Design the sequence.
């Protein structure tokens, strides 16, 4: 498992890629909704986010290697994530009438105590946190699924290792 998620070397076949993708999506979803329970979970966001990003990169790199492509192609996948994520977030803002600038201003107005600001931030973003987490999970699944379908496995050994089964 450590090799699967934290090493970009080697190859990853289509079925193992989708299993890894589903686990990453579930973990990301759980950590996206944890701050709804307590503001202290916000502090986990940065380190867990970095670990999940590295695992995402390694998973995609190995799948790209299985198709005989360079891991640099992940930049294209990342661009797709950023564009679709931004569009879906803006759509949720429009549908819910949420104003992130006003929400942060309201949170900052609660006082100068850092924890008070964090708790206020959780309170102001609570209405959109679950819809954003759900659309993020669905969007991620679609990107993984489409990317997996587009990338055809190299049936022979290539520069990244032996063929996957």
Sequence:
């Amino acid at each position: 498992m450590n090799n699967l998620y934290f090493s970009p070397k080697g190859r990853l076949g289509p079925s193992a890629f989708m299993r890894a993708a589903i686990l990453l999506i579930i973990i990301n979803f759980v950590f996206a909704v944890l701050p709804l329970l307590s503001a202290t979970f916000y502090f986990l966001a940065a380190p867990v986010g970095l670990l999940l990003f590295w695992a995402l990169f390694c998973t995609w790199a190995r799948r790209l290697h299985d198709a005989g492509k360079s891991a640099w192609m992940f930049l294209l996948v990342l661009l797709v994530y950023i564009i679709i994520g931004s569009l879906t977030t803006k759509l949720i803002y429009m549908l819910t009438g949420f104003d992130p600038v006003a929400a942060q201003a309201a949170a900052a107005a609660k006082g100068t105590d850092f924890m008070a600001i964090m708790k206020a931030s959780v309170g102001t973003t609570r209405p959109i946190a679950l819809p954003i987490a759900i659309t993020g999970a669905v969007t991620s699944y679609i990107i993984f699924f489409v990317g997996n379908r587009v990338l055809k496995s190299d049936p022979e050994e290539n520069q990244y290792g032996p063929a996957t089964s």
User: Anything to note?
Assistant: The radius of gyration is 19 Å.
